[in-house]
Design brief:
The complex is a heterotrimer of chains A (565), B (272) and C (353). Chain A has 23 helices and four strands. With 565 residues, chain A is an all-alpha fold. In chain A, helix 1 packs antiparallel against helix 3, helix 12 packs antiparallel against helix 13 and helix 12 runs parallel beside helix 14. Chain A is globular and about 75 Å long. The two termini of chain A are 49 Å apart. Chain B has three domains: 150 residues, Rossmann fold (3-Layer(aba) Sandwich), CATH 3.40.50.300; 79 residues, no CATH class; 30 residues. In chain B, helix 3 runs parallel beside helix 6, helix 5 packs across helix 6 and helix 10 packs antiparallel against helix 11. Chain C is mainly alpha-helical. Chain C has one domain: Orthogonal Bundle (ABC transporter involved in vitamin B12 uptake, BtuC), CATH 1.10.3470. Chain C is built from 14 helices and four strands. Chain C has a two-stranded antiparallel ribbon. Chain C has a two-stranded antiparallel sheet with strand order 2-3. Chain C is globular, with a radius of gyration of 21 Å. The chains are: A mainly alpha (565), B alpha/beta (272), C mainly alpha (353). At the A-C interface, helix 1, helix 14, helix 20 and helix 22 of A face helix 2, helix 7, helix 12 and helix 14 of C.
Chain lengths: 565, 272, 353
């Protein structure tokens, strides 16, 4: 028997992979772009935070993969991984000082080197990076060795502080709008990032709460569960009422700029609800979904704009036509792909999306839909004497659309049609052998999805007041696909969460805009590799069903022997 | 009266004739087995009956009506249901949902009914759920309704597949190797279930089976296919004595099969 | 017999046949009108054909990667267009350095070789990494999962290169040797187009022989037929899959350089449209079929180069060349509907498609 030896290869490998990711962040320009924003004023910027977090994660992974449980070995491997990470970045620094990397990598700028070297020049910077790697590695190892409760408290607190720093504008505006809360603003934020005492107190507050909540939380939720059904019902009602109030008041709370962000999130959420039917329920990967969005928008534009001078209908008169046009397009584009499966369907729908965009751009259809110039002067929606002009008003329009789409999806999911969609998703042949008409079922999915997209497009057109072919490129389809996959395919709350995270966040973070699709691509790959069900998988319904089942099922006489449990 | 009649059914894949001029007649309320070596065309015939394959020649009549050219979903409407050799449940749906999908043809609620949750829809859904639970109990899966189909053990999956087929309320049920991979006890139970389906529910059963104990034990008539052609037909006893059948299996050089075939009295394990 | 045909013809089928018929009618009427108009002379058509051949041979080279990966993994490597982009985009910097040092001027052939090698190496590395990180862990997952991964990887790579090299167009340095034209009597042929056609033809011939004749080629074909049996025969299945990605990466990298030489610029988004086109070519030739992909590429190139002017000009459609891509996509849809096994009718019929 050999004495177990310290396996140094594994942490070195993990550290090198982590370091490569760090170098990637630097060269792609994320570190520099993100350092505009300070998380904690004057202490740590978002770019540095990105490095720190990836370093911690690397160290943590190395600690977790340690084969022997001895504390020193765990710490050793996380230290080694951190050191490797620091070393890789230091190497970038040194190479960068010797060779002009900028001739190839446009982001390898002096500013980047300065940031990486903590403003201390190459040599000192490289040493500092190594030291940082060691320190962060050890810290990650310690984090791993902590008991679950402590670890969760620390991670949560750190997460909150980072989020507060990242979303500082949102928070500042929100707090600023409410007189008494402005005090929090002053405490928490300086002009640029969190203030030191603010960050510290937030950290302590969240850590403390998490730590104690892990004990009392379960007690509390247990007590809630033991409430009589009537009580639970009231509680749920109060919850829903509160949610409704908040949703209704949101634009007033958030102000103009954030309401604009909300409307964009809403436009995408509405599309996401539609694509969720096609992809999430019926399992058909439609990559040309933007086509229906475009068709809705263009129908709205062509029917209402006085510029083209065909109809000059009002928003409400044109809206049904836009939705019907979407449904028709859904059916017409659905028929050719009825017999195609999986990947062929994806490519063909991608082609459809491009065809629609190319046609919209072409001179061929210019007299009807404006060609490259698009259509302008699309009127706003008017209800009674209110005209929906500002984002704060349009928000309600989109909210109604989303609620309608969400309601319809929710009702359909548990219906005969919803089950037919899921059966087609699971196994087309068997679905047909259960008596499901594949043609009708698939076309209904396409039509339903297209209707929501067209509705979204029509509102979008009225919101902007104009439509351009360039707004309807393939990235929209990818964006929508990404948000339903990250949110959880088939799940309605997943769509909302996905839209808020994947559309809302980039809208809030200007410096992030350039890296939006980079992050989307990475998210798609990672989700498929790690968590294909999404962040918010549709689990609640199953649990409800289960409860109903165990309560109601009365053993009926089965044939032969008594039923086994 | 014959519930299913095939006349000269021929199905080709390119140059290969999988089923050749197959004549077949199955009496109502009977249990009928089709046996034959692997690749003899048994499952191909099932696929022709259920509308998945378009056969080139011949005709298949169900209840006196031709099913030629009908899509699988139309054929289900007429009252034919099936299970699969390699279980094909809707893996990510729950057991209950699987059965509910089976009831698809008997439910009427459409888009509007579902969205507005009209009283008729609510009633229909409640009845469908009750029916699904009843079927679940019937195949001894009570209480397992909320398990995802893929998480059920193998034997349960087989039975769930039958429950799902029953949910379509078939007059004729095609079972493709229902006891494959089962132990003797489970096989015994499956045989009881099949008999029960016929006796109590009046469903005509058509089986593909390799386990000779099952074939000889429950079927009234047996047809033997080899290379897509029918080489024998008759009662189990007649088949056991038929020299052509023995030869068909002997020709394959599969000694164990021959032994069990010739002296099917002694139980041998499934010959899959 | 007729009864069977009529019975099997559903409403949706009739719709498709009508659409197909309408498209064929447009093609026929449009071509007749264009030809009778006599707007284009023989020289024009010759130009269109040579351009189509050059374009098509590039599509063919890219299509090889799609078709081979599909053959072996039964998945569309959606990120193949980025494998195509990454090579020439990186090699562009090598080319610029060579141009600055004057080496490109003095040793054009050697420089071109260096550019090709760099591009092919980068594309290959990306292809292999992609296989290792994104596809291999998902080989047994349901079909949609690797496809979504591939889509994600595609956009990840696009925006990675955008982040690394910038979002603008990067001009490829001029190579004097490849500029200008040869005169063949009344006809004028651009040198670059001839070079592209010849280079692509050479590479495809080499690849075809490699797949048909060598041990590795045979092993790859065996794995495409049946992975399990191939493994039982002692073939290293993973190794063959990696080699397939290597071959796909190399041909995509080479195609990328040819593309860059022809259009004289590179861009992070440059792979997207050629990628879909090449996929169309692969489908056209019967996906999984290597000679088919080559044939499909050339056919698509010609169709796309001749199509807009031939079919649409006579019908009075303004600026028909704007609709070039739409024509290619419509052809993809039509092929998938009416002849999903491709023009060469590959054996990958129902069970694999």
């Amino acid at each position: 028997m050999e004495k177990p030896r310290f396996d140094w290869l594994q942490p070195v490998k993990i550290g090198l992979v982590g370091g490569a990711i760090g170098v990637f962040f630097a060269l792609v320009g994320m570190v520099e772009a993100f350092s505009i924003r300070d998380i904690v004023d004057g202490i740590v910027s978002m770019g540095q935070m990105l490095m720190l977090i990836s370093m911690t994660f690397t160290g943590y992974m190395a600690a977790r993969r340690t084969t022997q449980p001895q504390h020193l070995w765990v710490l050793g491997s996380s230290l080694l991984a951190g050191l490797m990470f620091g070393g890789m970045v230091a190497l970038l620094l040194i190479v960068g000082s010797l060779v002009n990397l900028r001739a190839v990598f446009i982001n390898a700028s002096p500013t980047l080197y300065e940031l990486l070297a903590f403003g201390r020049g190459t040599q000192a910077g490289a040493l500092l990076l190594l030291a940082e790697g060691v320190l962060v590695g050890v810290a990650a190892g310690l984090l791993y060795l902590l008991t679950g409760r402590f670890r969760q408290a620390l991670v949560n607190a750190l997460g909150w502080v980072v989020m507060a720093g990242v979303l500082q504008e949102l928070l500042r505006i929100t707090f600023g709008a409410w007189g008494p809360l402005a005090v929090i603003n002053q405490w928490l934020f300086t002009g640029k990032g969190l203030s030191v005492p603010g960050a510290a107190s937030l950290f302590v507050l969240v850590a403390g709460t998490t730590y104690f909540w892990s004990q009392t939380g379960s007690v509390l939720s247990n007590r809630l569960r033991r409430l009589p059904p009537g009580g639970q019902h009231t509680l749920r009602l109060v919850g829903i009422l509160l949610l409704v109030l908040i949703v209704l008041a949101l634009p007033q709370i958030l102000g103009l700029y954030l309401s604009e962000v909300l409307t964009i999130v809403g436009v995408f959420a509405l599309m996401g609800l539609g694509l969720n039917i096609v992809v999430g329920l019926a399992g058909m990967l439609d990559l040309g979904y933007v086509a229906f969005f475009a068709i809705g928008a263009y129908t709205m534009g062509a029917l209402t704009s006085p510029e083209l001078g065909f109809f000059s209908l009002s928003f409400w008169e044109a809206l049904p036509f836009a939705v019907v046009a979407g449904v028709l397009a859904g059916v017409i584009l659905g028929i050719p792909v009825l017999k195609m499966r999986g990947d062929y369907l994806a490519i063909v729908t991608l082609g459809f999306g491009e065809i629609v965009r190319i046609l919209a751009l072409s001179d061929f259809l210019r007299p009807w839909i404006g060609g490259a110039q698009g259509i302008a002067k699309i009127p706003k929606a008017i209800v009674g004497s209110i005209e929906f002009i500002s984002p704060q008003q349009i928000y309600y329009l989109i909210l109604v659309g989303c609620l309608l789409a969400g309601f319809i999806s929710w009702r359909l999911k548990d219906s005969r049609l919803g089950r037919a969609w899921m059966a087609v998703r699971e196994d087309e042949d068997v679905a047909a052998a259960m008596g499901i008409n594949l043609v009708a079922t698939k076309l209904l999915a396409f039509a339903g999805g297209a209707a929501f997209a067209a509705l979204s497009g029509a509102i979008f057109a009225s919101k902007l007041g104009s439509v351009y072919p360039h707004s309807f490129n393939v990235m929209i389809s990818i964006n929508v696909l990404c948000l339903i996959i990250v949110g959880g395919m088939g799940s309605i709350t997943g769509v909302i969460v996905g839209a808020a995270a994947l559309v809302g966040l980039p809208e809030l973070l200007r410096e992030f805009a350039e890296y939006r699709f980079l992050a989307y691509g990475a998210a798609l790959v990672l989700m498929m590799l790690v968590r294909p069900a999404g962040l918010m998988p549709e689990a609640t319904r199953r649990r409800e069903l289960q409860e109903a089942e165990t309560v109601e099922a009365e053993p009926e006489p089965a044939f032969g022997a008594p039923a086994s449990p | 009266m014959a519930i299913l009649t095939a006349r000269g059914v021929t199905k080709r894949f390119g140059g290969l004739t999988a089923v050749s001029k197959f004549d077949f007649e199955s009496e109502e309320n009977s249990i009928y087995s089709i046996i034959g070596p692997n690749g003899a065309g048994k499952t191909t015939f099932f696929n022709c009956v259920t509308g998945f394959y378009r056969f080139e020649e011949g005709d298949i009549l169900f209840d006196g009506h031709s099913i030629v050219g009908l899509t699988p979903d139309r054929i289900v409407h007429m009252g034919i249901a099936r299970t699969y050799q390699n279980i094909r449940l809707f893996a990510n749906l729950t057991a209950i949902e699987n059965i509910l999908v089976g009831q698809h043809t008997h439910l009427k609620s459409g888009l509007v009914g579902a969205v507005l949750r009209l009283p008729s829809t609510v009633r229909e859904e409640a009845a469908a759920l009750a029916e699904a639970r009843r079927l679940l109990n019937f195949v001894k899966l009570a209480g397992k309704g909320d398990f995802l189909a893929k998480n059920l053990p193998y034997g349960d999956q087989r039975r769930l597949e039958i429950a799902r087929a029953l949910a379509t309320r078939p007059k004729l049920l095609l079972l493709d190797e229902p006891t494959a991979g089962m132990n003797p006890h489970e096989t015994e139970e499956m045989m009881a279930l099949v008999r029960h389906l016929r006796d109590e529910l009046g469903i005509t059963i058509l089986l593909i089976e390799h386990d000779m104990r099952v074939v000889m034990g429950i079927s009234e008539r047996v047809t033997v296919l080899d290379y897509g052609e029918k080489i024998a037909e008759g009662t189990p006893a007649e088949i056991q004595a038929n020299p052509k059948v023995i030869e068909a299996y002997l020709g394959r050089g599969s000694a164990t099969e021959v032994v069990s075939q010739a002296s099917a009295v002694q139980a041998s394990p499934a010959l899959a | 017999m007729l009864r069977r045909v009529l019975e099997s013809l559903s409403l949706t089928d009739s719709f498709m046949w009508l659409t197909g018929g309408a498209i064929v009618a447009v093609i026929v009427v449009g071509s007749a009108a264009t030809l009778s108009m006599g707007r284009y002379s023989g020289r024009h058509w010759f130009d269109f054909i040579i351009f189509g051949l050059a374009q098509g041979s590039i599509y063919a080279l890219i299509a090889l990667g799609y078709t081979m990966v599909y053959g072996i993994l039964r998945m569309i490597n959606f990120a193949h267009s980025e494998i195509f982009m990454s090579g020439p985009y990186t090699a562009c910097y090598v080319a610029m350095a060579l141009s600055r040092s004057g080496f490109l001027e003095s040793q054009p052939i050697l420089s071109l070789a260096v550019i090709f090698i760099v591009a092919m190496a980068v594309s290959t590395v990306i292809a292999v990494l992609l296989e290792r990180i994104a596809y291999r862990p998902l080989r047994t997952a349901p079909r949609l999962v690797p496809l979504i991964t591939a889509i994600g990887a595609s956009f990840f790579l696009q925006y990675t290169f955008r982040g690394l090299y910038g979002s603008g167009f990067q001009a490829y340095p001029d190579i004097r040797m490849l500029q200008g034209a040869w005169l063949l009597g009344p006809l004028r042929i651009l040198k670059i187009q001839v070079v592209v056609i010849l280079a692509a033809a050479l590479m495809m011939a080499g690849l075809y022989l490699f797949i048909q004749r060598t041990r590795i080629g045979k092993a790859i074909r065996a794995v495409s037929e049946d992975k399990e049996i191939a493994a039982l025969m002692g073939i290293d299945v993973d190794g063959m899959i990696v080699r397939t990605f290597v071959i796909g990466g190399m041909s995509a990298g080479a195609a990328g350089v040819l593309y860059a030489l022809m259009y004289r610029q590179v861009h992070f988004f440059m792979g997207f449209i050629p990628g879909i086109k090449a996929f169309t070519a692969a489908v056209l030739g019967g996906i999984g079929n290597i000679p088919g992909a080559m044939l499909g590429g050339v056919f698509l190139g010609l169709f796309e180069s001749l199509g807009p002017n031939l079919f649409l000009d006579g019908l009075g459609v303004p600026s028909p060349n704007q609709l070039k891509d739409a024509i290619a996509f419509i052809m993809l849809v039509m092929v998938l509907i009416f002849r999903p096994t491709g023009i060469l009718g590959e054996r990958l019929a129902e069970k694999k498609a």
